[in-house]
TrEMBL record:
Protein name per Swiss-Prot or TrEMBL: Prepilin type IV endopeptidase peptidase domain-containing protein
Family statement: Belongs to the peptidase A24 family.
GO aspect biological process, one term: signal peptide processing
GO MF terms held by the record: aspartic-type endopeptidase activity
GO cellular component, one term: plasma membrane
PANTHER family per record: PREPILIN LEADER PEPTIDASE_N-METHYLTRANSFERASE-RELATED, TYPE 4 PREPILIN-LIKE PROTEINS LEADER PEPTIDE-PROCESSING ENZYME
Positions of transmembrane segments: 9-25, 57-78, 98-115, 159-179
Superkingdom per UniProt: Bacteria
Pfam families linked: Peptidase_A24
Length: 180
């Protein structure tokens, strides 16, 4: 892919840089700036219309709607910048690549979240909380004297910057293919 510095290579580098910058900013400040994501979306729409046709544009729109519905259902568990970053990625990527990046990003987010929780509270405390709150209270419906919802206990130690996970997932999926 990087045999010469042509338009596709430069475009790939610009998109990659935008995704990495979003990930770095999200990791530091827990925000993804519109000044990067909105042009990513607009240029993705133009790219889809010009190069791919309307089928991928319909797919990306469907992905954006699904992500928005999921964000509304999770009551703020995913931010607006994450939505725009994922929408931009959906516009610039083929379906199978996008799904793999989302899967890898989600796995990275889960591992990151567990690691943050263990670091902040200790392994034994996290194991006990998980069993009591997640398994007994939520999965089995047993209150067991616990009336505190998980949403009320969220703090900065529990927040995972998903934009950073998306950037890492993107790197994990694409750079092995680029190096070949």
């Amino acid at each position: 892919m990087f045999k010469g510095v042509g338009k596709p290579d430069i475009l790939f580098l610009v998109i990659t840089a935008a995704i990495l910058v979003c990930g770095l900013i999200d990791a530091k400040k827990y925000i993804i700036p519109n000044v990067i994501t909105v042009p990513l979306i607009i240029s993705g729409v133009v790219y889809q219309i010009y190069h791919q046709g309307y089928i991928n544009l319909v797919f990306a729109t469907a992905v954006a709607l699904i992500i928005i519905v999921l964000a509304l259902l999770t009551k703020g568990g995913i931010g607006g910048g994450d939505l725009k970053l994922l929408t931009g990625l959906a516009l610039w990527m083929e379906l199978q690549h996008f799904l793999y990046v989302v899967l890898i990003s989600s796995f990275i987010g889960i591992v990151w979240g567990i690691a943050k929780k263990v670091k902040a509270r200790g392994y034994e405390k996290v194991k006990e909380e998980y069993f009591q709150k997640m398994v007994l209270t939520h999965a089995l419906g047993l209150k067991n004297g616990l009336d505190v919802s998980i949403e009320e206990e969220l703090n900065n130690n529990d927040i995972v910057p998903f934009g950073a996970c998306v950037a890492l997932g993107y790197l994990a999926w694409f750079f092995p293919a680029v190096i070949k």
